[in-house]
Records
---
Amino acid sequence: MKQFLEIGKIINTHGLKGEVKLELWCDDIDYLKQFKTLYLDENGAQALTLASARPQKNHAIVKLAEIGGIDDAERLKGKILFANRDDAVLEEGHNYIDDLIGCYVVDAETEQEYGRVCDVLNYGASDILDVESWGKHTLIPMIDDVIVEIDVEFQVITIKPMKGLFDEN
């Protein structure tokens, strides 16, 4: 499992005091506010202190203590911010997308393997697993009627497939 997870991408500056506009890749602003430190690299070597964060439409306006003005903020455009997974509390029954990618998807009744998760999508109603097997992609909704168990430690997601999900006809 990755220790440092992508939290979002800096897409622009905001104002003259060094704030940046962040495209959130995490659940919401409240999740982001759990972190006191964010990082500019996936190894946690370049630390930045999160001074404040507030919502703006589907983004966040973030102030990083080390960024004093617009010139410093300008240099951050396009950069990905990372967070240490140990610095946040994840609600019971929730998983990081990074932990789901690579998991095998298996039938709860027959133990048939359907493939591996190559992506997790969301179009509003629920997360959707993109499961790839031999070049074929199947989209599986992450709803209670389908997902039986998620075991990220052993990289297995057990499902009860909906009728027609894997039918070839």
---
Amino acid sequence: MTIEELVAEIDKLTVLELNDLVKAIEEKYGVSAAAGVVVAGPAAGAAPAEEKDSFDVELTDVGPNKIKVIKVVRELTGLGLKEAKDAVEGAPKVLKEGADKAEAEDMKAKLEAEGAKITLK
């Protein structure tokens, strides 16, 4: 019997018969159909519950465009020029604590566009 023929036969089974088939395969070969579901499950259902929802945005490295990075830091944090400059020159430095995911990703994208390196913790 080819794989296609086997699949065609499985298509003809009822839900209860499929359940019995799965149990028989699990017992005969010592495998579990649930293992595949567990691996796929967190990505679909449990990931948001386990996913981190608060991030610290850390400026790890300024990069070549220090002045542009300072401007972006001022824009994103509301710091004055001196405070933003001190933050940038003091890298690695946490720019924002407890940012939600969207805000953290936005800050990261804007700063990396200017050549800075950002770490989300």
---
Amino acid sequence: MEEKRTALVTGASRGIGRSIADNVASQCVTVILGCSGQTATAESVAEGIRAVGGEAEVCSFRVEDAEAAAAAIRDLQKKYGNIDILVNNAGINRDGLLLRMSEEEFESVLQVNLMGTFHCTKAVLRSMMRKRSGRIINISSVSGVMGNAGQTNYSASKAGIIGFTKAVAREVAGRGITVNAIAPGFIDTDMTKALPESVVTQVTEQIPMKHFGRPEDVAELAAFLASEEADISRGR
């Protein structure tokens, strides 16, 4: 009988994180929905997963708080034995031109997006290495690849995630752990709904298919990277 796996998806109450949680749960994986607020929204997602026979619970902590993240993940490991899959999806944006951007606006985005990824990854890694297996999926952005005007803080944080992912992947590949980053383009979420109409029009014109992607598009890729089919040890 296949061993039950456990996944932690941060920022799972809406958008891409919610779709990833739903998709991963369909693989007979117990899903922990990480959130820093919106606990009621996250609980409704968990209830939806349970309603179709899945297993899910909500865990509230701030990824940018190193001690809180480590304590929350330590408690989850005690309860479930291991975190087999980590999806670092939690992120924020505080857009604005660099000349008008405060140090706090720049740093707060790096703290959640980049440092949050660091804190959660570090917290799960030791047990994954002992087990010699694990899946870590980090959600970056096309803004981290190409840059985007008005998003120096966001672009820097997402570019940092790409470099972080490549480095950690080299460190742990020999232990059967995969570390991947997904860099979505513009996705139809609450974050992009807040963009001015003029920006949406400008961005859409740059997309060959002339429309934003869906959270489900990203979720399906994340689910594959989390699956047994993505096992790098196959054939050894």
---
Amino acid sequence: MSLVLAKLIEELTDGRLRIVDLTQPLSPQTPLLPLPPQFNNTPAFRIWELSRYDERGPAWYWNAFETGEHTGTHFDAPVHWVSGKDLPDNTVDRIPPKKFVGPACVIDVSAEVARNPDYLLTPERIRQWEEQYGRIPAGAWVLLRTDWSKRTDPRDYINLKENGPHTPGLVKESSAFLALERDVLGVGVETVGTDAGQAVTFDPPFPNHYVMHGSGKFGLAGLCNLDQLSPTGAIVVAAPLKIVGGSGSPLRVIAITP
């Protein structure tokens, strides 16, 4: 074992490093992104028992489940959006695994979101963060802390009004800045999707999806516990299931942090 890996295990064992779970539980109660009725909506997570130490299987317990690729805490691959459909290695099974791991840059806008659920992250706000914590490095995961995951009631979490959901996100220029000028791995959010709730009305619609995936970048949605991370210093591991041709996948996102 290399000295670096041995040191990592030693510091995890001694508690100088800790693992923070950034993943929400996946169950039939997991909130889903509501699309207009003319489009196919993702099915709710469903799980059923196959055997539990009984006549169906005397020594084992196991279940089967079904769900959409973009249910709960999940990974968005470039092929998920039309802008990324022709890129190479754009499905979850073809993305190089080293791209699942990167340093975390946590931008805390929870105070702004508490005042305005439709808050949008601007490039100016990103530069303010960089003035305080340093330039966002290439290959980073940029995580938008909004504390939205603390909304445990699914109705409050989706925040659906007569004109659609109202949740925070990014302006198109911020997505372009991060993807093209900072060359990040992608962005992670606490909301049900990586675009704002009202993003269907933006130009183009769902601009974070359009820009990020068109640039070969990724998305992490449905994160939690971002309040346990410092602005810098953590490493995020976000590895989706290796679904052949998959546009995304539920996943277990973890952070290694001091």
